[in-house]
């Protein structure tokens, strides 16, 4: 995290945690900044933790012309397939009564 933004590790691009807006697009690579169109803004969700779980409120996300998906991924690089990635699986539970998505600690 940097200045209230999340940093995409492969491009160093930053996205504002409060609005989902792109703050910097390829800040260290001026060639790719010009050649690659910027991504759309991201949806922002209310999040809280209890030490072991992460609770993501799936109702009332900030509407910013953004993506409506939550993507959780591990290592990403050319030539690496999903079966080649060595990451722990995150258990997800949707609590319909509270409209929360819970990312539980530990692995399955």
Keywords:
single chain, 108 residues, mainly beta, 2 domains, four-stranded antiparallel β-sheet, 6% helix
Please describe what this structure looks like:
With 108 residues, this protein is mainly β. It folds into two domains: 42 residues, no CATH class; 64 residues, no CATH class. It is 6% helix and 24% strand. It is built from one helix and seven strands; from the N terminus they run βββαββββ. The strands form two sheets. A four-stranded antiparallel sheet has the order 4-5-7-6, with no helix packed on it. It has a three-stranded antiparallel sheet with strand order 1-2-3, with no helix packed on it. A hairpin with a 4-residue loop joins strand 4 and strand 5. The longest helix has 6 residues. The chain is elongated, with a radius of gyration of 16 Å.
Instruction: Please mark out the parts with pLDDT under 50 across 5 or more consecutive residues, or reply none.
Output: 66-75
Strand count, sense and closure of the main sheet?
A: 4 strands, antiparallel
Portion of residues in helices?
under 10%
**Mean pLDDT value:** 70
Q: What's the number of helices?
A: 1
Alpha-beta classification: mainly beta
Number of strands: 7
The value of Rg in angstroms is 16 Å
Distance between the termini: 28 Å
